[in-house]
Please model this.
Amino acid sequence: MAVAQKLRCTVEAITDHGEHVYTVVLRPERPAPRFRPGQFLHLALDEYEPGGFWPESRVFSIASGPAQRERLQISYSVRGQFTARMEQELGVGREVWVKLPYGDFVVEASGPVALLAGGTGITAFTAFLAGLTAAFPYPILLAYGARRRELLIYRDLVEHQRAAVPQLRPVYFLEEGAAHGDIAGRLAVAALWPLLAQPRATTWYLSGPPAMLQAVRGELTDLRVEPQLIKVDAWE
Model:
C-alpha cells in the first residue's frame, strides 16, 4: 500500500457542467504516489506548512486513472460551505494542497458486480471503468443517475467502454428529460433487479449522495442481499 503524501498542486483546468457541478484537473508538484481505482484524496484550499497542522479539507474520489500520476482529476457538486468556497475561489493557476491516497472502496470482483452511481458519485468508479478491457471475466452492470442528461458528466467514458468491453452494461436514470433507453426517475434497485442473472450473488457497490445511499441500501436489504455483498462509499 502506498504511503500517503502531501503535495502542492496547481489548478490546470476547470470545467463548469452547469447547476454548480464542476470537474477540476490538478497538476501536482511531483508525480502523485501510486493509488488504486476507487481511492480518494483530501483537498485543502488553505496553505499548508510542512510539519504543521493540516488545514480544513474535504475528500474527493480520484476520477483519473492510476497511470496518470502527473495529473489528478476530481469532480464535485456544490454542497455546503467547503464546496461553495471551491466554486468561488478556484481558478486556473490557483495553488491548493492534496494528500493521498486513502480508502478501500476498490472493486475487487470474484463474480458479477453492480456499480450504482448518483451524480458525481460516478467518480468512485471512473478509474476502474477506464481501466477495463474485454478480458474482464464477469458481468458489470453500471447504473448511473443524475437530474438531467447534461449532468451525466462521464457518459462519454462509459459509452466508449461499453463499445470496448462486452461485459459492461450501462443503465441511465434521469429525473428530468429521460429519452428512449433511459429510465425516468431516481436510481432504484427495483429497475435493475430483472437485468441481473444472479442479483443475490452480485456484489453491489454504491456511491452517491446520502439520501441515495440510504434508499438503495434499504432496497437491497429488503431484497435479502447479504450485507457483505453491499459496499458503500459514503463520500459525504
In short: The longest strand covers residues 5-18.
